[in-house]
Amino acid sequence: MNSALSVATDTSAAARYFRVLGDATRLMIIGALIDGERTVGELVDLVGQAQPRISTHLACLRHCGFVTTERRGKEVFYRLALGGLDQIMGRATEAMAPISERLATCTRIGPEWV
């Protein structure tokens, strides 16, 4: 086992963590929230997907502890609850740069993952 993932770490929880990050829509939402808190409507506009889809992904992110909410009147504001996600995303961009073309054309992972 890699020392970066200690024996004390629950590997199924780690796999779920990366599975949350393994969805393009959730990555776009996280990217938008890195810049600051947003409402569902703002996220719909920024991500360019339907409100029910954004709400479903926000529910996942909230349940798993990636985001928190605050109600202000009729609006609910979402913000990141986990520190370091901006560094993880930045480092992932660096790490995948040498293989980005292969990732873009990968047929081993089905289209339902994209």
Structure write-up:
The chain has 114 residues and is an alpha+beta fold. Helix content is 53%, strand content 12%. The longest helix is centred in the middle third of the chain and has 13 residues, at 51-63. The mean pLDDT is 88.
Strand neighbour order, sheet with most strands: 1-3-2
Radius of gyration: 16 Å
**Main beta sheet:** 3 strands, antiparallel
Global morphology: globular
Distance between the termini: 29 Å
Give me the strand/helix succession. Answer: HHEHHEEHH
Structural class: alpha+beta
Q: Give the low-pLDDT segments.
A: none
Helicity level, as a percent range?
40-55%
β content, as a range? 5-15%
How much is the average pLDDT? 88
Number of strands: 3
Please count the helical segments.
6
Kindly summarize this structure in a few lines.
With 114 residues, the chain is an alpha+beta fold. The protein contains 6 helices and 3 strands, in the order H-H-E-H-H-E-E-H-H.
Secondary-structure blueprint of this entry?
Elements: H1 11-21, H2 24-34, E1 38-39, H3 40-47, H4 51-63, E2 67-72, E3 75-80, H5 85-96, H6 100-104
Antiparallel strand pairs: 1-3, 2-3
What features would you highlight for this structure?
114 residues; alpha+beta; 6 helices; 3 strands
